[in-house]
Amino acid sequence: MDGEGQTKKFMFVNRKVPYGTVYALESLEVVLISAAFDQDVSLAFVDDGVYQLKDGQSTDGIGMKNFSPTYKALGDYDINKLYVEKESLEERGLSVDDLMELTYEDEDDDWAEKSSIILVSRDELAEVMDQQDVVISS
Amino acid sequence: MKFTILINEGPYQHQASDSAYQFAKAAIAKGHEIFRVFFYNDAVNNATRLAIPPQDDRNITVQWAELAEQNKIDMVVCIAAAQRRGMLDDDEKDRQGKDASNIHPAFRISGLGQLVEGGIQSDRLITFGD
After folding, report:
1. Can you name the residues that pair with A113 across neighbouring β-strands?
2. ipTM of model
3. Measured between CA atoms, how close is A105 to chain B, in angstroms?
């Protein structure tokens, strides 16, 4: 396909709650496709977007598909940089312990299982964002 | 500079598509290239050829179609988002056994890979949406 051989830094920024609008679900669909392009892909979770990673989601009462297990598959797609903004968690009374356990196997470290979640401050995330070639936000 | 434009909102309800159109027109006037316009989320509805806006209002689909024709812009509607929302071209209509299609011929249906490729191939990818 066109663009093969080129590697860019892609960051998908998630700002919205997982249910209520379709943005979170359809953003995740782009993330999964991007894995096929051998790009340097990361995700950021800010504002209400941190709720997308909340552990123990249940959609039984709202007639929507619970797509949160898909985040657990990202490690298998070599997508293992999930930046979560500390301030956004705190503003919502959450901590990293309230989030799903999301891991990947590090091939450079004898396939040791490691967490994909990187807790960053607002300032640190701004720096990481600044290093990206493509930022897709929803 | 080479741009890919991503639009995430439906027509008329939201100004994203209008703003993207104004941006594309201005960029072209300044000698830049629009590599691709990608319609995602509810923005797939921008591609309907069946909309009938009032006569004193703009027709967003026709505006895009004319700009694309004049400047050879590749306008892509996401197939996954389009199928969910009942946006079909003739091929999809036949493949899915539906009784009608509604996508304007200036647009083509393709996959999300076209968005990622747009990001790789272009100098800038610009999002219009909430």
Report:
1. A105
2. 0.91
3. 25
